[in-house]
Amino acid sequence: MKMKKILAVASVVAVFVGTLTGCGKTGGTGGTEQGTEQAETNTKSESTLKNLNVGYLPSPGHLLYFIAQEEGYFKEEGLDINLVMFGENNSELAALESGKIDVGAFGSSELVTFLADGHDLSVFAGAMKAGHGIIVKDSLVEGIPKEDWSLELLVGKTIGVEGVDSGHIVYRDALKKLGYGDDDVTFLVFEDGAEAYASLKNDDIDAAILYAPYRILAEDEGYTILSNSGDVDGFHEHVCCRQAALTSKIEEDPDTYKAFLRALIKAYKFYKEDHEKSIDDIAVYVDVDKELLKADTYDYDDEIANPDPDIANMTNFYEALVDLDFVKQFDIGKSLTADLYEQALNEIIEENPDDEVYKHLAEYHENSASVSE
Fold first, then answer.
1. Chunked mean pLDDT (size 10), the chain, 373 residues
2. Which residues contact 329 (CB under 8 A, 6 or more apart)?
3. What global pTM score does this model have?
């Protein structure tokens, strides 16, 4: 299977790399008076749209943005979205705080550490779920039946990780619960997933924790996925990227952020129901062979994206970070909110009372709106 290169795989994208928008504009027909009037009407309509700069990483896990843009859901909700690509979370968080972007999807671990330092953000929606895997050389599992594969095979090995990203925390916590610490497994920190993957290919490390689409790219090149993070005990379908904005901006303009959420809820329905076109939309922003994208998006996890803020699992993730001594205890609850999401979802369900996908989101939210026992 022929594989394309992933966007920005060679270096970290720490600044804006251009405006990525959906295709197609409506306009007039020829030079007729009717066409001119139609063009003026369209221009006026475009001018009334609310502008938002939205940060993303080139990963299938951020597919809600891509589908909402390409399928026109943002414009349907009165928004003109400028999607801005980043290579990793820290530069994206800096852009959010400086006002260069208005909202973005950020790794849960990075968000928790950012909040622990006193930054005033509101985590108000979900994005990527699970989506990480431990990638190893075939030699590590050679001769071992797949049903006997376990994380204990990593004892004495060096694992490459991207900072404190979600997959890193899932596997580090899982190994700790098995009784293994830093003396048993070495975690080598890299700046981003591309760098960790390159180190694995150079035989500098024994394994790497990689997120989509690096996970499928590595498997396609002959490496083995020892484990997918969404299958780890205690972290089933765990939160990964969460959506956040400055608290002050949400308070100043809640209707805009609610409209943003309405568009993402519609995008989620599209993602669940139209796999082929969803992959086409994702491929506009993630430059990977479509068959590989489809596998990484639909085959490895129950689902790779969900707009629900999932306060229960986000709180559990925070507790894992505290347990691992990555952060000190603080009141994370004041930064987690489901209010706007509930409003947006309730409105859409009222408009589509018989829709099964929206009913599913309502059930999901009922189970994720508070800390699980």
1. 35 31 31 37 62 95 97 98 92 95 95 94 96 93 95 96 91 95 94 90 94 89 93 88 97 98 98 98 95 93 94 93 95 96 98 97 86 39
2. 322
3. 0.83
